[in-house]
Amino acid sequence: MDKVYFVYIIYSGEFDRYYIGQTENLAQRLDQHMEGKSKYTSRAKDWEIKYVEEFESREAAMKREREIKKKKSRKFIEYLIEKEKGA
């Protein structure tokens, strides 16, 4: 089976922040965030996945991650999350 790569957005209510990342193992990566192994996300312990996109290559996932981060917009992130809920 081909590898799948994910772009994900997680949210911490405690911190009231979103984090955007990419990985090939979503469950393992979320565990790393919860265990404080990522500097940015180590400040909270209540991260939850709010949004996920799948890609066939790491390059495509990294490109999409950069696109989302470049917008620097909480509104855009919340738009993506709401759009996915409605799908």
- Principal-axes geometry comes out as globular
CATH class wording: Alpha Beta
Give me the CATH architecture, please: 3-Layer(aba) Sandwich
The beta-strand count equals 3
Average pLDDT, all residues: 93
**In total, how many domains does the architecture comprise?**
1
- Helices and strands: which structural class? alpha+beta
The strand line-up of the biggest sheet is 2-1-3
- Tell me what portion of residues adopts beta-strand conformation: 25-35%
- How would you spell out the order of helices and strands? EEHEHH
Annotated CATH homologous superfamily:
GIY-YIG endonuclease
* CATH topology value: GIY-YIG endonuclease
Tell me the distance between the termini.
27 Å
Major sheet: 3 strands, antiparallel
Helix proportion range: 40-55%
The poorly predicted ranges are none
- What is the number of helices? 3
Question: Could you tell me the radius of gyration in angstroms?
Answer: 13 Å
How would you characterize this protein structure?
- This protein has helices at residues 26-34, 58-71, 74-86; strands at 5-12, 17-23, 48-55.
- It contains three helices and three strands.
- The chain is 41% helix and 26% strand.
- It has a three-stranded antiparallel sheet, sandwiched between helices.
- The chain has 87 residues and is α+β, with helices and mostly antiparallel strands.
- The protein is globular.
- The protein has one domain: GIY-YIG endonuclease, CATH 3.40.1440.
- The termini are far apart.
- Strand 1 and strand 2 (17-23) form a beta hairpin.
Summarize the structure.
With 87 residues, the protein is an alpha+beta fold.
